[in-house]
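Quiz preparation item.
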């Protein structure tokens, strides 16, 4: 189980696929360990190297006291790339991972070859502030185990939950078996609540793909449209009938769309 010393923590990571070119560095969202990217890794690794990792406070990576910031977690990702001798990479982030990737593309453009922002947002205000604040309320009210259970209806579409209940319970079991610590989850939620790159997103130079589920209740399509409007030349794809975790709910279509977009840049 490899880990690397990055800033003040040891980060657990995995590398898959070829190592003869810049990889895709996948950055997961709030409270999610890196293995939730495996449906993408299995599809991507024939074309490009893949790096997945557990963020600060999650899974097999160290926890530090909250709060965390998006800038701090972007620094963790860059430090991991340094440890793995990755000068620049294709960055793919989901939710909080998208905020982290966006920060990297704005402040460290030389490290970001392409940028994928999935189910993400530009700044915490309005409805995003309400929904992300609700995540904090759930954690405070019930603790981490309850958090993973209670947030499922926010992460998946009603149709997926009803028609794939056994698979949903397996996903929940995986979440609860590879959780964030209480401090880690609280820290990542605080990073969500202080995120605001609205004055800087127009500095993104990397080719950018933005995707979102049509039925995303946490960060709805309006959040992705705001990103699309802020980043010149970006492309926006809305997945019909999907919730927040399109990467897991409809991995087949997600992988096809994102790989088709990425291949010309490899």
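Solution:
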């Amino acid at each position: 189980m490899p880990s690397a010393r990055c800033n003040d923590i040891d980060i657990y990571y995995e590398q898959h696929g070829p190592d003869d070119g810049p990889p895709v560095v996948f950055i997961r969202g709030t409270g999610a360990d890196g293995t939730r990217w495996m449906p993408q890794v299995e599809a991507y690794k024939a074309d490009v190297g893949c790096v997945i990792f557990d963020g600060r406070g999650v899974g097999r990576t160290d926890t530090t006291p909250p709060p965390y910031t998006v800038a701090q977690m972007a620094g963790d990702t860059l430090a991991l790339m340094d440890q793995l001798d990755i000068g620049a990479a294709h960055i793919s982030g989901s939710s909080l991972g998208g905020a982290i990737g966006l920060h990297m593309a704005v402040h460290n453009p030389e490290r970001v070859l392409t940028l994928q922002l999935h189910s993400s947002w530009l700044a915490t205000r309005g409805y995003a502030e309400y929904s992300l604040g609700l995540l904090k309320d759930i954690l405070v009210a019930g603790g981490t185990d309850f958090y993973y259970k209670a947030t499922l209806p926010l992460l998946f579409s009603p149709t997926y939950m009803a028609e794939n209940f056994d698979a949903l319970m397996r996903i929940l079991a995986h979440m609860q078996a590879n959780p964030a610590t209480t401090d880690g989850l609280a820290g990542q939620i605080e990073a969500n609540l202080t995120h605001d790159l609205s004055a800087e997103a127009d500095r993104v130079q990397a080719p950018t793909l933005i995707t979102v589920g049509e039925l995303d209740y946490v960060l709805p399509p309006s959040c992705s449209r705001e990103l699309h409007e802020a980043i010149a030349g970006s492309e926006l794809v809305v997945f019909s009938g999907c919730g927040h975790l399109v990467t897991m709910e409809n991995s087949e279509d997600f992988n096809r769309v994102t790989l088709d977009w990425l291949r010309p840049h490899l």
